[in-house]
Amino acid sequence: MRVAAAVFKRGDSRSCIRKYEEVLRECEEKAVDLVVFPALTGEVCDFEEDFIEKIRDFSLRYKDIAINPGSYFENHDGKVYHSSFVMLNGEIKLFQRQLYLARWERELGLSRDTALKIADIKGYKISIILSTDVFYPQVSRYAALKGVNLVLSPVAIKGQRNFARQIAGVWQNVQQNLFFAIESGFKGEYKGNNFYSEAAIHAPLEMTKDDDGFLAKEVDSNIIIAELNEVERQKAISKFDVIKQLNINSYKGIFR
Amino acid sequence: MKNILEIVFESKMSEKKVNNYLRRLHGFSRGNFILKKKGKIRVACVEREIKVTNSFEEYAERMRKFVEEAALKGSDIVAFPEYNFFDLLGLIPGFGKLNNFLNKKAKSEEVSNSEGGGGEGLLKVIFKSISKAYQEAYEKIMRDFAKRYGIYIYTGSYIITENGNLYNGGTLISREGEILGRQKKIHLTDFEEKIGIKGDEELKVFSLDIGKIACPVCMDATYFETFRMAFEKGAEIVILPIANMEEYNFWRALRGIWPRVQESYVYGAKASLNGWIGGIHFTGKAAIFAPIDMTENEDGIIAIAPHYEGDYVVTSDLDIERLYEVREKAEYFKDVNEEFEKDYYEKVYENFRRVKDEK
């Protein structure tokens, strides 16, 4: 499967519709099967209508590309969630609300989802591990032990550019769970907070060219692309099978 | 009945030899201690090269010098690496020559024999044979050093035999030279599994006057569960002995304790073994880590050895009070999702085991 992460620069959110269009057109040209956009795009972008409907419009025009359009704040039953979804040919295939909240999200009074959803899309077992959830490793472990082999992560990491903080998120979750992950990061301001996060396509370290866990890293372009190869992933796992050596009996009472 | 190796190890590390060695040691002046700021504790992590020897006294003296250096730097606690006994495989008659041959061969072929080369059965015999004699002798000298230098010692790991099973574990010793407890490795490598080492099932946290400390072993830091349990039990500092049998690579080295420290908001102190033995190359930097918010360069590193090979004592001051302040203010830490976490063990781990068993 050919996958892509959208690369958003600071300020791109001011002309979002054009940026989405450019990204999706490039995905179509390059025969991309699935693309992930940064977190908070549904909030910071200049969509004039409902976020989901606008994405549906894109999805119907860019057929057969599974789109994870980033995230937005969803109002549901009097509560507000930080939410994301995957849409394919105008249909929502997977919907996920964030499970954990950052301090700034708690201060806004957001609510949490109760479960991680999994969907079969284009031959992969996929979960969305949304933004703050990348810093709670129990979410990634849950996904891995349920057989997820591809994680989509729209992220918005609070603060200035910080390589260490970025690595402490998706990268390390991939290395301790050995799934593929597509990360797309938001850069900019929202509600007085500054965010800086980058795009990357991750894989187990043993199968990456530079032994660094990256199939693709952010560059100055609209998208970064990688080819996911499940056979190669299985070979990498056979070299360093973290999951096999879990000592389950010792984890009783892990969340007291 | 004892095998020949057990007899060799017992004779070369006999109580008499250990006592004679300790009697010859001179006193230690505490006047050299470096003063620390109030409320801070100083941690020392040993990075050391394997130096194969056929003399227990020579080995003991090397260990003592590391303890002395840590004490002279004003450290409250010093930690040694995983498999801290490899040097003493030199006590096996003929091992020196065999070792030189295997190391030379591996270096010339640029291949580290990290799979054990099919000699798992032999290694199991060696590990079992050295276990009792080494543990008795090593713990005795380390208890003496702890008392002599007034410093807590985490011994690093070695083979512990219990009820006929082999474990890879280490011991925490008080400033008075008392054994406070042992922690055996919970997550094994494939190699350890092959040579018959068993995994522990409980992570302990030791409450000391310098902080609450957990001492898992090497591979345990690949698993967030280890540090989650340490945090749940109140750990403030996690000491980790490592012996990585692979060529050094920044990204591979990053897969262990560093991300665990970032997830669990504890201090992490890594002691590392390096060098060649039996054609296997060990590499790794000793280091002291903290949550990114607590480090000057915002990289989660407080102190790190300059190279992945050689001998170093890496020291740093830790501020436990500040750790709690940072935990309270952290952006991405300490949120609780009661519904998601409820029955997590059953719905995640037990379910995984059930599905695996059904296959």
TrEMBL record, chain A:
Q: What are the boundaries of the signal sequence? A: none
Q: Which domain of life is it from?
A: Bacteria
- By its UniProt entry, which Gene3D superfamilies does this protein fall under? Carbon-nitrogen hydrolase
Please give the InterPro entries that the UniProt record associates with this protein. Answer: C-N_Hydrolase (IPR003010), C-N_Hydrolase_sf (IPR036526)
**Record's SUPFAM superfamilies?**
Carbon-nitrogen hydrolase
- CN hydrolase domain segment(s): 17-160
- Keyword Hydrolase set for record: yes
Q: List, in alphabetical order, the Gene Ontology terms for molecular function in this entry.
A: hydrolase activity
UniProtKB keywords: Hydrolase
Write one Pfam family the protein is assigned to: CN_hydrolase
Q: What is this protein called?
A: Putative amidohydrolase
TrEMBL record, chain B:
Entry keywords, A to Z? Hydrolase
Q: Does the keyword Membrane apply?
A: no
Which residue range or ranges hold the CN hydrolase domain?
41-320
The record's listing under Pfam families reads:
CN_hydrolase
Give the molecular function GO annotations.
hydrolase activity, acting on carbon-nitrogen (but not peptide) bonds, in linear amides
Q: Specify whether Hydrolase is a keyword of the entry.
A: yes
PANTHER family given in the database record: BETA-UREIDOPROPIONASE, NITRILASE C965.09-RELATED
Q: What is this protein called?
A: Putative amidohydrolase
Organism from which the protein derives: Thermoanaerobacter thermohydrosulfuricus WC1
